[in-house]
């Protein structure tokens, strides 16, 4: 009897010691957060994943794992966790802010999402292009409203070329689709159709995949007297603070065909999704109609631009480009823009 009692006492002591040594939820959570602070992101993901096995809809744990994945630029994984956390806790401010940030980082265009706390933006831009002995001028005024997901903008465009002046009006929207996908849809109306097409529209779909890659495909229809259609495919890649994108376009109209390839490199030099520097290069070749008349035309274009937020609300943008063509004058362009968000 004494032997059994002693054995029972020993086993009870061992069990109590094991329970006492097993870290609780708070200790495990703080340890996982410490791994993020120590920049040990893969280990942090493993730690949060292990805790999520017992509580798969815990918003704090989902946010923690998303944070570690964001630090590794794994946007698709981070967004998936943040969407689950938002569904579980729709009023969790930190989750809402993180979801907005990851959408901004993933967006090749700032029109998809803006910084948390802002729902509107407006801008003015102007460009001047020197072509041969002519100077072309273009102006754009825009206003955009940001929803919880996506945005809708209205634009007024003004063009002055060849001694003519024309205006156009456009609606430009971005909307999420299925997981890690969104679309850009645009409709533009030129009532006078002197320089702008009478009607034009665009639809382009973007799909993110593992590894920081993004694929896209789209179509533009320009409603000139001779309709012009532009078919495009693109591949983007996020790596560190860089975003690289290649886009190919086939441009088709009656009796003519041309193509264009454009490579863009954007560097987020401030480590945020607002400020960046960008360089781009494009190469285009004309189609059958031009080839039969004057020979195949080739165009090489080079461009640079920079965006700076001088305050949290106000930003400025400046750019310059040069285009060299066979059988056509060179084009030199400069542009400036000012925008505000609130």
Automatic annotation (TrEMBL):
TPR repeats: 25-58
Residue stretches making up the YaiO beta-barrel domain: 134-289
Bias type Polar residues, positions: 322-333
Keywords, comma-separated and alphabetical: Signal, TPR repeat
InterPro entries assigned to the protein according to its UniProt record, in alphabetical order: Beta-barrel_YaiO (IPR030887), TPR-like_helical_dom_sf (IPR011990), TPR_rpt (IPR019734)
Leader peptide range in chain numbering: 1-20
Region (Disordered): 321-342
Protein's name in the database: YaiO family outer membrane beta-barrel protein
The organism's taxonomic lineage, starting at the top: Bacteria, Pseudomonadati, Pseudomonadota, Betaproteobacteria, Burkholderiales
Gene assigned in the entry: yaiO
């Amino acid at each position: 009897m004494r032997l059994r009692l002693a054995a029972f006492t020993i086993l009870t002591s061992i069990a109590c010691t094991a329970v006492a040594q097993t870290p609780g939820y708070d200790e495990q959570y703080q340890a996982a957060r410490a791994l993020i602070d120590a920049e040990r992101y893969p280990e942090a993901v493993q730690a949060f994943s292990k805790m999520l096995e017992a509580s798969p809809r815990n918003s704090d744990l989902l946010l923690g794992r998303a944070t570690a994945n964001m630090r590794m630029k794994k946007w698709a994984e981070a967004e998936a966790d943040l969407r689950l956390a938002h569904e579980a806790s729709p009023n969790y401010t930190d989750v809402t802010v993180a979801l907005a940030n990851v959408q901004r980082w993933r967006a090749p265009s700032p029109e998809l999402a803006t910084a948390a706390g802002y729902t509107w933006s407006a801008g003015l831009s102007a460009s001047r292009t020197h072509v041969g002995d002519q100077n072309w001028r273009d102006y754009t005024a825009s206003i955009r409203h940001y929803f919880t997901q996506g945005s809708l903008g209205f634009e007024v465009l003004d063009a002055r070329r060849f001694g003519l002046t024309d205006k156009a009006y456009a609606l430009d929207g971005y909307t999420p689709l299925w997981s890690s996908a969104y679309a850009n849809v645009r409709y533009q109306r030129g009532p006078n159709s002197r320089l702008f097409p009478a009607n034009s529209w665009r639809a382009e779909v973007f799909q993110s995949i593992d590894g920081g890659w993004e694929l896209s495909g789209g179509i533009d229809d320009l409603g000139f007297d001779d309709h012009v259609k532009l078919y495009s495919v693109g591949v983007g890649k996020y790596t560190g603070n860089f975003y690289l994108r290649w886009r190919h376009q086939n441009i088709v109209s009656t009796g003519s065909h041309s193509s264009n390839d454009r490579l863009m490199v954007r560097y987020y030099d401030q480590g945020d999704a607002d400020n960046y520097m960008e360089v781009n290069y494009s190469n285009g070749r004309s189609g059958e109609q031009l080839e039969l008349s004057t020979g195949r035309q080739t165009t090489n274009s080079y461009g640079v631009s920079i965006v700076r937020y001088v305050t949290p609300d106000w930003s400025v943008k400046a750019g310059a480009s040069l285009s060299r063509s066979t059988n056509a004058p060179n084009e030199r362009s400069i542009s400036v823009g000012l925008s505000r968000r609130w």
